[in-house]
Amino acid sequence: MMNDAHDLTIPTDRLRTLSSELRAQSPQWADRLEQATTEQDLRNLVCDLFNLSHALPSQKESSNETHTLSGRITRFINENLHRGLTLKVLANFLGYSEKYCSDLFYRIMGESFSGYMRRHRVERAQSLLTTTAQTLAEVATAVGFSDQFAFSHFFKRATGRSPREIRSRLTVHAMQKAL
User: Fold this and answer.
1) 38 in a structural domain
2) Are 36 and 45 in contact (CB under 8 A)?
3) Residue 90's pLDDT is what?
4) Whole-angstrom Cα distance, residue 15 to residue 68?
5) What is the pLDDT of residues 48-98, one digit of tens each?
6) Which Pfam families does its entry note (predicted)?
7) Residue 1 domain-assigned (yes or no)
8) Per-residue pLDDT tens for 121-141?
9) Residue 141 contacts residue 105 (beta carbons within 8 Å)
10) pLDDT class for 151, splitting at 50, 70, 90?
């Protein structure tokens, strides 16, 4: 028996159930589902959701949802730090509103998005400054800054030391060890 895709109908009560399940994960997507009035609207929504399916935990992951989502967030930030991430970019990646994403981020990660990003950028920059020969401009780019002057200002304000001080202390320490 062949099924024609146009004959596929979803009962209204099942759509409501799907909508409420989705609302628990992402209110923004649930709103879009409830606003779908045509088959094309529903197709577009399903395609969009399919493209973002990595952001929603599967049923077998739901018991470990917080751990899974924190891993996804951490991985996304690590892989995209050089792009100058914003809360808006993360919210779009997860399919959430910025406000919801901000609250969720704090609940899962234990600190604000901006605090996490500041700490993560400083840690990555310190590691690059002490373990590589990358220029300051290269380090700045690697942690999401478009120029080394903005990076140097940020780094000094965050650590009390300039990137050059960190690197020169490393050089002096290495020379002392060699003697």
Assistant:
1) yes
2) yes
3) 95
4) 26
5) 655 544 444 444 444 454 468 889 999 999 999 999 899 999 999 999 999
6) HTH_18 (PF12833)
7) no
8) 999 999 999 999 999 999 999
9) no
10) very high
Asked if the structure places residue 4 within a domain, the reply is no
Are both 123 and 165 inside the same structural domain?
yes
- CA–CA dist 150, 147 (Å, integer): 6
Domain interval for residue 65: 59-110
Amino acid occupying residue 114: S
Q: How many CA atoms within 13 Å lie on the side-chain side of 117?
A: 21
Distance CA 151, CA 101 (A): 26
Decide if 98 is inside a domain.
yes
Tokens of 17: 């159930």
Residue at which a domain ends, from 75, 93, 110 = 110
Structure tokens at 42: 């529903």
d(CA 36, CA 114): 35
**Mapped to the 3 state alphabet, what secondary structure does the chain carry?**
CCCCHHHCCCCHHHHHHHHHHHHHHCHHHHHHHHHCCCHHHHHHHHHHHHHCHHHCCCHHHHHHHHHHHHHHHHHHHHHHHHHCCCHHHHHHHHCCCHHHHHHHHHHHHCCCHHHHHHHHHHHHHHHHHHHCCCCHHHHHHHCCCCCHHHHHHHHHHHHCCCHHHHHHHHHHHHHHHHC
Give the count of domains, the chain.
3
